[in-house]
Amino acid sequence: MPIAISRRALLGTAAAAWAAAGTPRVQGATPKKRVARLSANENPYGPGPKARAAIQAAVAESCRYSIGSYTQLLDALARHENVARENIVLGAGSGELLHMLALEYVGRGELVTAWPTFNQITAYAEKLGASVKRVPLDAAMRHDLPAMAQATTGNTGLVYVCNPNNPTGTAVDGSRLHDFCRAVAQQALVVVDEAYLELVEPGATASMVDLARAGENVIVLRTFSKIHGLAGLRIGYGIGEANNMARLRRMQMTFPNTIGLEAALASLNDAEFLAQTKRALSIDRRRMVEVCRALGLDCTDSQGNFIFVNTGMPASQFRERMLAHSIEVGRNFEPYSNWCRVSVGTRAETDQFLAALPRVAAA
Predict the structure, then answer these.
(1) Could you tell me if residue 346 is inside a domain?
(2) Residue among 283, 320, 105 nearest 191 (CA)
(3) Which of 245, 269, 293 is the last residue of a domain?
(4) Residue by residue, what is the 3-state secondary structure of 75-104?
(5) Which residue, of 269, 292, 307, is where some domain finishes?
(6) Cα 12 from Cα 103, distance rounded (Å)
(7) Closest of 192, 191, 263 to residue 225, by C-alpha
(8) What is the pLDDT of residues 40-85, one digit of tens each?
(9) SS3 string of 207-220?
(10) Band of the pLDDT at 15, cuts 50, 70, 90?
């Protein structure tokens, strides 16, 4: 006598078998190799262990507004930077802070910036109707500080300095930048974006936070997106004179999320993870530069978690060839059409890039 099997039971059995078998494959298809993402200057080692624990603990509280976490991180950063609370403004990543700065200090006015550099504030300022003066980098692909000072006029609302610079990775001598900021701040607000500062070699440059502490017309930006490995959780902050920060705070667009705030607070005190991460990224950055130069490919003296290399071919072509080796590298940065920005990945990802590079460069 045949056994009756209900449609529900049959579907349940099939679902269980499907789950047990794992991801189904099309017959004859080859599984796709994981692409090494070396395109966005992320920290592949983060979040650190303390941040991961904080993230897990914060999930249960994500139904709550993050007022307590916000205040705790604000206090911790004030202690960390040796300033008062009113000298700190938190943002949803430094990206939000750059938008806030454009709204408050540029509007339909004028912005002076090096070029190429991180373009978030320039793109947003232009959307607001501002005039942007793009000052070419010098022969070493560093900020041309004298030219930027000359470009600054009474119409300039803000001067933007990304140090170390993205995409070139170059850093400006600390004493020269200090003198530049003090002089130019007499005419316009100077914003120094120090997103990559924790990754620089000793003596390569210096923070401008002492000027912000001293009440100069200077704002320093920091982020948890780079060495802290929290890019996806969007936490950044600015340090500056109290009146400037009050002006900036009134342009706040949103409120940082609870999980990001708790992760940042935990990561701030994870000295072991930060030191290990800096060491690993610095070692592989040097390896990448050495191999590029050994192949005859010119590189800048990068101080970030990435390199900037003259590939000898259009960057779009280099990108396509690298993708054929399951490696994703950075976009075009005009006017350096043959140069490519490549982020430092994990040790395995770095090995993958260095193994592919001679074949790509010789093709």
Answers:
(1) yes
(2) 105
(3) 269
(4) HHHHHHHCCCHHHEEEECHHHHHHHHHHHH
(5) 269
(6) 57
(7) 263
(8) 999 999 999 999 999 999 999 899 888 899 999 999 999 999 999 9
(9) CCHHHHHCCCCEEE
(10) very low
d(CA 194, CA 222): 5
Angle between helices 258-268 and 49-59 (to 10 degrees): 150
Q: Is residue 338 domain-resident?
A: yes
Average pLDDT, the chain: 91
Strands 306-310 and 339-343: antiparallel
The total number of structural domains that make up the chain: 2
Domain that includes residue 307, residue range? 36-45+272-362
Confidence of residue 32 (pLDDT cuts 50, 70, 90): low
| Residue 255 CA neighbour count, 13 Å, CB half | 9
- The reported pTM is 0.90
Q: Which whole-number Å values give the CA distances from 257 to 54, 64, 73, 227, 291, in the listed order?
A: 13, 10, 12, 19, 41
The two three-digit tokens of residue 247, written as one number: 């002006």
Residues 335 and 263 in one domain: no
- Mean pLDDT confidence for 154-182: 98
Please tell me whether residues 232 and 304 are part of one structural domain: no
Tokens representing 293 are 């130069």
Closest CA to 330 of 304, 307, 354: 307
Q: What is the pLDDT of residue 245?
A: 98
Provide mean pLDDT across the span 224-234: 97
